[in-house]
Amino acid sequence: MKKLFLLFLIAAIGLSVSSVVAGQSGRRKPPAAVPAPSPTPEEKPVEPASKTADTKVLTVTAEKGEDYSCTDDGTLAHLVNDGVNTGLQAKEVDTRAEILARPEPKYTEEARRRGVQGVVILKLLLGAEGKIERIRVARILPFGLTESAIRAACAVKFKPALKEGVQVDQWVDMEYGFSLAKSSVYGP
Q1: What distance in Å separates the CA atoms of residue 182 and residue 8, rounded to the nearest whole number?
Q2: pLDDT tens for residues 121-159?
Q3: CA 98, CA 82: separation in Å to the nearest integer?
Q4: Taking a C-beta distance cutoff of 8 angstroms, is the pair 188, 106 a contact?
Q5: H or E element that contains 52
Q6: Strands (DSSP E) along the chain, which ranges?
Q7: pTM of the model
Q8: Does the pLDDT value for residue 28 go beyond 80?
Q9: Domains of the chain, start order
Q10: Nearest-angstrom CA–CA distance, 73 and 19
Q11: N or C: which end of the chain has fewer CB within 10 A?
Q12: Tens-place pLDDT, residues 69-112
């Protein structure tokens, strides 16, 4: 029985191979006409495009323990951790810095789609001149939420801390919570 089955299998394979080979007629397509070369266009000098129109914004991915600074165009600038810690802690100043405005960060579409929730913790160095000097990342969240929190922190408005009547730099902790229940497709 096995021999009969093997003979049948070999015959079937032989028929299929012969039908493929016999199906080829041997005719070839006529060679395609070679198009005549077109004259080369004159090269025109390329004018430099504006920097904001065509350049892609390099995105910085925030990492825990790293320092960043705010920029005017909304991008993040990574600062080399040079050991600079000129700011004072809240217990070292006479009058603590006062937060006047604290914008909420935007929920990124990718984080919303993946259901990411949690808290980003940042340490802000509030400068004596009234601007954010440094932002240090203490706790991160993925899919752009940490970067969104840093951008929101860059927009914080505050009144500088005082020590002996002089405005000084002060470190403050900021927590930014991300909850799907509070997020909206249309808002932050």
Answers
A1: 70
A2: 999 999 999 999 999 999 999 999 999 999 999 999 999
A3: 27
A4: yes
A5: helix 51-54
A6: 67-70, 76-79, 98-101, 118-126, 132-139, 157-159, 161-163, 166-168, 170-178
A7: 0.64
A8: no
A9: 62-178 (3.30.2420.10)
A10: 69
A11: N
A12: 888 876 777 776 666 667 889 899 999 999 999 999 999 999 99
Neighbours of 118 (CB within 10 A): 15
3-state helix, strand, coil in the chain (%, to 5): 25, 25, 50
Closest CA to 158 of 139, 133, 186, 138: 133
Residue listed under structure tokens 């039908």: 19
The tokens of 167 are what? 């405005």
73/70 Cα distance (integer angstroms) = 9
Query: Between these two residues, 158 and 19, which has the higher pLDDT value?
Result: 158
Find out whether 121 and 175 touch, Cβ atoms under 8 Å. yes
Give, in degrees to the nearest 5, the angle at Cα 126 between 81 and 173: 80
Tally the residues of the chain.
Answer: 188
N-terminal to C-terminal alpha carbon distance within the chain: 75
pLDDT band at 64 (very low <50, low <70, confident <90, very high): confident
Distance CA 73, CA 168 (A): 27
As given in the structure block, the two tokens for residue 17 are 């191979």
Structure-token match 């993925």, residue found: 142
Reading the block at residue 169, the tokens are 């730099």
Which of residues 188 and 147 earns the better pLDDT score? Answer: 147
